[in-house]
Write a structure and sequence with these properties.
By secondary structure, the chain is an all-alpha fold. The protein has helices at 3-24, 28-48, 54-77, 83-102. The protein has one domain. Helix 1 (3-24) runs antiparallel to helix 2 (28-48), helix 1 crosses helix 3 and helix 3 (54-77) runs antiparallel to helix 4.
Length: 111
């Protein structure tokens, strides 16, 4: 895996952080962390879209963020595990992996 795909994955991890922050932040530091997570998340995603197809980057970003948020709700906040939800998340992740496998990096353009 190259650096560009790693930045998409890291962006998705920060997405999980800011989505949780939007729901649970109550103090100045929590809102500050949420804002930083938003900036880092979108910054990494925008940078990755310079080298990968934008639609693929966005789909992978949102797919991994969605799966991560569901797992974080279960692990951190005690949400119930539903088998149907787990199967749908697995299907989503299968689609994300498929998009990654069929996507090619763009050549870096010289300005």
């Amino acid at each position: 895996m190259n650096k560009t795909w790693a930045s998409v994955i890291i962006a998705a991890l920060f997405e999980v952080g800011w989505v949780i922050g939007l729901k649970h932040a109550s103090g100045f530091l929590e809102w500050g962390g949420t804002l930083i997570a938003i900036i880092v998340s979108f910054g990494l995603m925008i940078r990755a879209s310079r080298f990968l197809p934008v639609g693929t980057v966005y789909a992978v970003f949102v797919g991994l963020g969605t799966a991560g948020t569901v797992f974080a709700e279960i692990l951190l906040f005690g949400y119930p595990v539903q088998m149907e939800k787990m199967m749908l998340i697995a299907l989503l992740l299968l689609g994300v992996i498929g998009l990654k496998l069929v996507s090619k990096d763009k050549k870096k353009e010289v300005a």
